[in-house]
Amino acid sequence: MTSPHVDIGFAIFGDENLAKRGATIGVDPAADPAIAKKGFTQIRGVGENLPFKTESVGRVSIGSTLEYLELLEALAEAHRVLKPEGTVHIFNYEPEIHNISIQEFRGEAERAGFSKIRIRKSPDFDEEDFRAYNAILTK
After folding, report:
1. Helix, strand or coil, per DSSP, at residue 78
2. Which CATH number applies to 5-138?
């Protein structure tokens, strides 16, 4: 059995888009398990308190909902549920909108327990007046 890929705050993108990226479970306060598409499970919850066993998830992704999360709590919770070989993917992190510099983000990821932190410019948003970044975190 493959490890689940959990997306935190998926509702903005919908089941089908996330399923294309490999997500199998979405956690969101607005989740509605009754309308989940085949192959995708919706769970009502929040990123700071994930309803999964320790080291049971292969991949966690967080997109535009990052600004609504308590960053350190959400990263620590992702670290807790992540298998040792798993990864956390942060999509389109925007320092200006999320009000945290890249250095501060890196520090929060380290405090959450991540030892390998890669941050790169997002190919989706790399304009002169607007920059976004993607991050990959591993234990």
Report:
1. helix
2. 3.40.50.150
